[in-house]
């Protein structure tokens, strides 16, 4: 059996098959409210997937001079109000794969660009909440409460690890460029989940390994 590790999972697009509807919502709001075509908004959403909608809206609108903080806050709030009405759907293998990894003795953590309330709701409604030691969402108004260095610091403190221990035993699994970047910058193993033709994009962002199915994680961990 592979040695026990801290497995940090992105949520949307990695454990849950939710990225399509969320991307559509983002693009539809920018089209309807700012007259922006999808060919402008969707590449930005894809590039910054994992950071959360507020930075994504800002990245699309700032080059156009739409830097009004109140508007950015408002459109983000309304995005979440609609997104939270969507029923989360796990990938077919998610529950079985996570259950096996937990039985193997690995510590499971969620690190998401979504709000903490959203993260907790989604893992509860998909029946995987009992498998995670920590479920971390993002609140840009709370210092350190964001995917990346802030979440990694919370993981080390909550699990009584040193930074060196997390680097030696941590693995980040995600489907987005940002996921691979934060794992690379933290010096932990970066595993990219393939969703379409994103293999090369994930590799360029820092993915050291690629999987198509979460059940591949058991064999991958045994090889590390």
Descriptive notes:
The protein is of the alpha/beta class. It has two domains: 6-18 and 88-223, 3-Layer(aba) Sandwich (Rossmann fold), CATH 3.40.50.1000; 19-83, no CATH class. Helix content is 50%, strand content 11%. Helix 9 runs parallel beside helix 10 (199-205). The longest helix has 16 residues, at 19-34. The radius of gyration is 17 Å and the shape is globular. The model has no long low-confidence stretch (mean pLDDT 94).
Main sheet properties: 6 strands, parallel
CA-CA gap between termini: 11 Å
Structural class: alpha/beta
Helix content: 40-55%
CATH topology of the largest domain: Rossmann fold
Number of strands: 6
What count of helical segments does DSSP give?
A: 11
Radius of gyration: 17 Å
The top-level CATH class of the largest domain is Alpha Beta
Provide the CATH architecture of the largest domain.
3-Layer(aba) Sandwich
Q: How do the strands of the widest beta sheet line up side by side? A: 3-2-1-4-5-6
Q: Can you tell me the CATH superfamily of the largest domain?
A: HAD superfamily/HAD-like
The multimeric state of the shown protein is single chain
Model regions low in confidence, pLDDT < 50 over at least 5 residues: none
Globular, elongated, flat, extended or rod-shaped: what is the shape?
Answer: globular
Provide the number of structural domains: 2
Order of helices and strands: EHHHHHEHEHHEHEHEH
Q: pLDDT average, as an integer?
A: 94
Beta-strand content estimate: 5-15%
């Amino acid at each position: 059996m592979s040695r026990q590790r801290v497995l940090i999972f992105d949520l949307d697009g990695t454990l849950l098959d939710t990225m399509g509807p969320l991307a559509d919502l983002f693009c539809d709001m920018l089209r309807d409210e700012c007259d922006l075509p999808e060919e402008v908004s969707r590449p930005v959403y894809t590039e910054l997937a994992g950071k959360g909608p507020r930075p994504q809206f800002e990245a699309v609108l700032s080059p156009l001079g739409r830097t009004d903080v109140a508007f950015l806050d408002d459109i983000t709030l309304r995005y979440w109000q609609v997104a939270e009405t969507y029923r989360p759907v796990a990938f077919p293998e998610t529950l079985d794969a996570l259950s096996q990894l937990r039985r193997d003795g690995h510590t499971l953590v969620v690190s998401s660009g979504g709000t903490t309330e959203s993260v907790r709701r989604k893992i509860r409604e998909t029946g995987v909440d009992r498998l995670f030691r920590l479920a971390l969402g993002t609140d840009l108004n709370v210092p350190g409460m964001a995917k990346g260095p802030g979440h990694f610091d919370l993981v080390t403190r909550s699990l009584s690890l040193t930074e060196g221990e997390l680097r030696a035993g941590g693995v980040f699994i995600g489907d987005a460029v940002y996921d691979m970047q934060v794992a690379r910058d933290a010096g932990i193993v970066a595993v990219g989940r393939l969703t379409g033709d994103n293999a090369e994009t994930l590799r360029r962002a820092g993915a050291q390994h690629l999987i198509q199915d979460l059940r591949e994680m058991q064999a991958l961990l045994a090889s590390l």
